[in-house]
């Protein structure tokens, strides 16, 4: 097992080994069944926050979270972020507590990561939207689109527009499938960026990230679909926002090592 794989296993072991999670999820499901959705959602949000805090404490990392002018209230939006590896998920599900908005309702869109790590649908109940598996001979795009639009009526959806874990600090080009749905149905975007996750690897090019021991999770800006006359300009603006913020953070990371 490589160093990065070890940390992934450690990260996803926490919800299964810490007694707080089965107890919390049990109460969450009871509240959901009895119609107390607000308290069910709040418990889930806190568990996500506890998950990220526990993992960072165990691995000696600190989080630099900058909310900027992000407004967590409201629904019918896509929250997008770059996707280095699976250890970013605790940050995503912790976002309501990180932003001091304990009642924010978020869903999560993903493919194989949902199948691999069952704790994600457990923590988010049935609000998960599974991505179309492109290897299928007849993928049901219509049902997928319907599911996405249905979930957006009550909450926002977090997704990774690169479409895969990149295992690099470089931001890859965005996939167009889900983003086309967003543009066609006038879905606004809130853009975030994560930096520093490859500091958990043993690759020499990321050795400076081991020294800083800081993970950055910053808001880049919002994009309103109605402001763009073409899908290409809408997609390009999202990529540009994310990449520009990533460059700013990388300058901070390297200056911290020099100091």
TrEMBL record:
Transmembrane segments: 6-31
Signal peptide: none
SUPFAM superfamilies reported for this sequence: Glycerol-3-phosphate (1)-acyltransferase
Keywords from the named record: Acyltransferase, Membrane, Transferase, Transmembrane, Transmembrane helix
Phospholipid/glycerol acyltransferase domain: residues covered: 77-197
Pfam families from the UniProt entry: Acyltransferase (PF01553)
Source taxon at top rank: Bacteria
Gene Ontology molecular function: any one: acyltransferase activity
Cited InterPro entries: Plipid/glycerol_acylTrfase
Protein name listed in UniProt: 1-acyl-sn-glycerol-3-phosphate acyltransferase
Species the sequence originates in: Leptospira meyeri
